[in-house]
Amino acid sequence: MRGIAVALLISLLLLMSCGESEPSQDESLQGVEEVRTVSLVLVDSIGIEMGDSLYVMGAMEGLVYAPDGNIAVLDCSRSCVRIYSPEGLYLRQISKKGNGPGELQDAAFLSISEDGHIFLAGEGSEILGLHQFDYATGEWRGAEQSCGSPATCLEGAEGSSYVRKDLTFDTSTGEPQILVSISKYESDSEEPTVTYLEDTTPFDPSDMAGLIELIWYGYDIAADFSGNVYIAPRSTEEALIMVYDPDGNEINRLELDLEPVLRTEEELEIEKYILESKAAIMGDDFPGLEPDPYKPLIRGIEIDGEGNIWVLRGGPVVPTFDVFDAAGEQLFTAVVAGNPPDGSSWRFFIDSHGILAYAEDPVCGYQKIYILEIQE
Fold this sequence. Notes:
Blueprint lengths: L3 H14 L9 E2 L7 E11 L13 E6 L5 E5 L4 E5 L5 E5 L9 E9 L4 E8 L2 E8 L5 E6 L6 E5 L4 E10 L6 E10 L7 E9 L5 H9 L2 E5 L5 E5 L5 E6 L5 E7 L8 H17 L16 E6 L5 E5 L6 E5 L5 E7 L9 E6 L2 E6 L9 E7 L1
Parallel strand pairs: 1-18, 2-22
Antiparallel strand pairs: 2-25, 3-4, 4-5, 5-6, 7-8, 8-9, 9-10, 11-12, 12-13, 13-14, 15-16, 16-17, 17-18, 19-20, 20-21, 21-22, 23-24, 24-25
């Protein structure tokens, strides 16, 4: 597969050879009165190190609840989406590794819309781009070819829509830069229905770690089934969440008073391993990657079934959420119980069905799906 980062570089070379409404007032969260803290308790897990291959997770790169409450996980090593019951029973598989119609080679992002459209980004059916499947039947719905880098950071939204991040190179100013856009698309359209954010960042060919970080993360995105979208830039300088209505108008802005945290030597090695793993999934090989010495202030946002905003802090080793209602008032803090030693690499999915997580760099040496519940 032609790597995503390499595809971006090729786009740049080709370009070089060719010659909104006012946001609402910032809502400061400094000085918030003490709020209660709840625990997120592990109640079950799915995954084993050895044994029945249906329960051995190869390389997880996406985890969501399906519309019926089952659990869908993207296993990159097997190029398929596996479906498990809430009780952890293997049910079925969607797609498989191969080059034929509906088969996948390298897929790295997973989302499911409200009505059950599965969206995957990567290479499949000899197409580098976006792939669609029907959750109920497993049927392949087709693929959209990408001109350069495929869309990333997919989030299922209301109806058959989804939100995605796109990166393209631009040289119109004379200096190469990367254009970032975050937009909503319908399943049957190649053009966005709403664009929420457009931004630019300088392209630094000496900072491949920064490029991989931008491709895989860069912005944390969430969407609810009422049409609202939430965007938090991954930043070491500001902890900001922007809230948009269904028409793309910014209707709220939350700012958290968080301090940047330096990574330890061990954490830098973990982050380097994660970035190198992401590069390998994309088909790229960039030895000597140097991660940012600081952790991002925010490293995840999720929306629960009541419309509350779960903001995952980037600093703590133990996963810690600040939880706000839709108006931006803090309700409580949620902390994963048990002090998991690999907690800084946990990724989460939260919706009306519950709370899921997995470790990108599991201390036990193999990945599992974690099912958690709130305990007062």
